[in-house]
Amino acid sequence: MHPLDVAEYVEQSVDVLRRRLRDKPDLGVKQVQLSGQKVNLYLSVKQRRLLEDVIPSGLLAANNQAFAQAVRVIDLGAKPKSRDLVLSLDVTDYDGQPPTAELLYPNLSPLSQAEWPKSSDWQGIVIGHLSYDRPWFCRRGLREYHTHPQHEDDPWDKYREELALHTVVEEILYDLQHRMAFT
Q1: How far apart, in whole angstroms, are the C-alpha atoms of residue 37 and residue 40?
Q2: Which of 31, 75, 111, 165 has its CA 20 to 30 A from that of 12?
Q3: What is the spatial distance between Cα 130 and Cα 61, in angstroms, rounded to a whole number?
């Protein structure tokens, strides 16, 4: 596809995203900026506290070592705080390639690994990728997902016709507001 056609397609996709986000204030998006090959969504995220603990099972292994289960729960008793972040998408070669997605501070510097949110079910955000030296969203429709060796059998071409940019972004935003917490 010609680069001008790609740029026009990206602009149309971002316009659809903006329209849809106007009707979803609970996703916390304050502004959407398209600059070259980057789409930056400035958002206010509910920062919930994540409680982590290890619970002994009472079972012992053959070597008398105790089995235990690590658990995470979102502290629903604590009032969430608001935190400003940027969800940044690199849409280079979209939609021949899926976008990448990362979290940034409002000054557009990368969010430190320790400050990335976590889910109570240990899923959604992963550390460790051959091509990305940062945490990443393990989600179909993102380049990080489709280029990871564990997802070789789930190529982007399988989804690109039906999985619009706004769908991928809305799913990430929903998870950030409702499934994720910060330790």
Answers
A1: 10
A2: 111
A3: 35
CB 62 within 8 A of CB 121: no
- DSSP run (H or E) holding 136: strand 136-137
Q: What is the mean pLDDT of residues 73-87?
A: 90
**DSSP category for residue 126:** E
Mean pLDDT estimate for the chain:
91
Residue 183: band (very low, low, confident or very high) from pLDDT cuts 50, 70, 90: low
Q: Look up the domain containing 65 and give its range.
A: 3-181
With cut-offs at 50, 70 and 90, classify the pLDDT of residue 1.
low
CB-based contacts of 174, cutoff 8 Å, min separation 6: 27
| DSSP per position, 83-112 | EEEEEEEE-TTTTTSPPEEEEE-TTSPBPP
pLDDT at position 94, please?
92
- Structural domain total, the chain: 1
Counting Cβ atoms within 10 Å, is residue 7 exposed (0-12), middle (13-18) or buried (19+)? Answer: middle
